[in-house]
Each structure stands twice: as C-alpha cells, then as structure tokens.
Amino acid sequence: MQETNSVTKRTSVNGKTKMLGVIGNPIEHSVSPQLHNTLSITLQKNTMYVPFRVMRENLATAVNGLYALGFLGFNVTIPYKENVMEYIDEISKEAKLIGAVNTVKIHKEKFYGFNTDADGFAKSFTGETGEKFAGKKVVILGAGGAARAIAIKIALEDAGRICIVNRTKSKAKALVEVINKNVGGKAEFFGMSESEELMKQSDIIINTTSVGMYPNIESCPVSENFKFASWQIVYDVVYNPSKTKLINLAQSCGCKTVNGLGMLYYQGIYAWQIWMDCKIKEDVLDKVYKMFVKDVYGNLNYTIRAR
Ligand code: ATR
Residues 244, 217: contact at Cβ < 8 Å? Predict the structure, then answer.
C-alpha cells in the first residue's frame, strides 16, 4: 500500500445529509473517511465523513464550528486526543482513565467524549487470535497514546502481568502508576534494554511504537536475531506496511500475528455505533471489513484473519 489515494464513491449529497468528520494534524494519511463513507453507503445512511486539518490555535474554534454546523459527531486524532477533552461536557469513564478522547458525539447541545481505541484493539485482538487477556503475561513496547489505551484495556480485562517497556522510562512509569492506581497493581515498567528478557517470559507481545512504520520499514523494535516461541502472540499496531519486520520475524518463528488495521477498523465501527446509536450486524461488519482492507491495501494479498 504505502500511500492511499483512493476515493470512495457516493451516489449523492442532498439537503438532508448529516455530517461527520475527523480533526487532527496531519490528516492526509487518515483512512477513516474511506471507512465511514463505505459504512454510510453500505448501511444506506445519508451521512458524509470529511477530514479536517486543524492548527492547534484553532482547535476551540474548529470544535465549536462542528457544533454550529450541526455535525452528528467527529473523531479526534493526533495530536488532539488529550487537548480536546477540555471542550467536552461529559467524558466516558474509560476515556477519562485513558486520558484521551477519539470520538465525540454531539447531542442536544452537548459534547460527549469516548475512547474507542481500547475496545477497537480488544475486538481485533480477540477476533483475530481467538484469545483473551485474563491471566496472560503481556509485554507492551511503548508508552504513548496507543499504549495507554491498550494497557488500560488489558488491565481492565484482568491480565496476569503487564510489563510496559519504553525508550523513555519515565513515561512507562507514569502509565504504570495510572494502571496500578485505578485498575489494580499488575503493571511494571522497564527500559528498552530489558525488553528481550521480558518477552521470553510473556504470552503476548504488543508493539505500540511507530518503529517499523512506513517509510522506516527496515526498523524493528526487537533485535532481528530474537527468537519468539511459536505459542506466543505478536501484535503490531503498525498497519503500514501490512507486514512489518516484527510481524515477519514472529511469523518466521511460527507465532500468531496481528497488525493494527483491525484496531483501526473497529475503533471506527465503535465510533459509528455511538453516533448512530446502533449495533452493526456481524455479517455487515465482515463485508465492510473486506472493502476496507481492499481500500487500504489495494490488491495486496493481505490475510484478514492473520494466521
Ligand atoms: P501514539 O499515539 O501512536 O502511541 P506517541 O504517543 O507519540 O504515539 O507514542 C509513540 C511511542 O513510540 C512512544 O512510546 C515512543 O517512545 P518515547 O516515549 O521514548 O518517545 C515510541 N517510539 C517512537 N520512536 C521510537 C524509536 N525510534 N525507538 C523506540 N521507541 C520509539
């Protein structure tokens, strides 16, 4: 894939069309418009989803502008998932814990904030591996925004041990403190030098760093000589390229692997369900997922249910 430029075809926009969108900076790489416009066509909803690049100094004006224009809701992406919280009237418990909002619903003159990244991750993980987190030993590489959502979700789902490993150890420490204070004392923090020893003792390894992401596709967050055990599960939040060095390495050791496209997909699905107050049926989800994968990866031979 590397670059996505495709445009989802719509039949019409009319006076009754309701608006949705995403704010962030940069925004050109976002594939959420493809997903949500495919959803509106498939589910025959008269909605349209548009990306908006917003400068920091215009964030408040942009958020109020979306309200003034009658938007049903919007997504928030990097770098505003934390800053946007100051404009939200009611924030869900999970989003408060994660400290970030990626989905806003506008209803009766109020902004409601949610974080669907965590549920999107859990749904894609369980859907693609058939496994859950209860009692499992998990290593998370990274301590940024994605790590926060993932680590808190895994803690809420009762993992046995959560090791947060980060280049900047103080950020790993801060995340561990949030988890242990709010969810239970199962998290520990480490520096990168300890990652391989920890990975050997874990059931699930999750890369939340951007290492290996296009265009730096030759980078890998673990040493290329590292040997995973075949029963370990390796999850990489990076989805471009579809197979990072980490995923290739894990597959060569016989591991189940998952990339981040499913997380991206399901965070969008959960956002849509919040805006539309509906539950999308599983057969529709499968159909839209196939279209989404094709939209993102083109004709690349990507296995949706990875191994
Ligand atoms: P996101 O919202 O996608 O998680 P982020 O909040 O900027 O993005 O977090 C990026 C994560 O990738 C961080 O954990 C970062 O480590 P630092 O906290 O030390 O910055 C990690 N990361 C990015 N580039 C890295 C690299 N080259 N090596 C190791 N870790 C890296």
Answer: yes
Task: Please say if 81 is a catalytic residue.
Answer: yes
**Pocket probe mutation, ligand 1, options 210, 238, 264, max atoms within 8 Å of Cβ:** 210
- Given a contact cutoff of 8 angstroms between Cβ atoms, the answer to whether 174 and 143 are in contact is yes
> Quick one: which atom of ligand 1 is closest to the CA of 208?
4
Its pTM surpasses 0.90: yes
Q: Which residue among 16, 18, 81, 108 is the active-site one?
A: 81
- The structure tokens 């993992």 sit at 159
Helices (H), the chain: 32-42, 59-68, 93-98, 117-129, 145-156, 169-182, 195-200, 245-252, 261-276, 282-297
Task: Report the DSSP pairing between strands 161-166 and 110-114.
Answer: unpaired
As for ligand 1, residues whose beta carbon falls within 6 Å of it are 78, 142-147, 166-168, 171, 208-211
- pLDDT tens, residue by residue, 75-118: 999 999 999 999 999 999 999 999 999 999 999 999 999 999 99
* Closest residue by Cα to residue 210 from 202, 198, 220, 223: 220
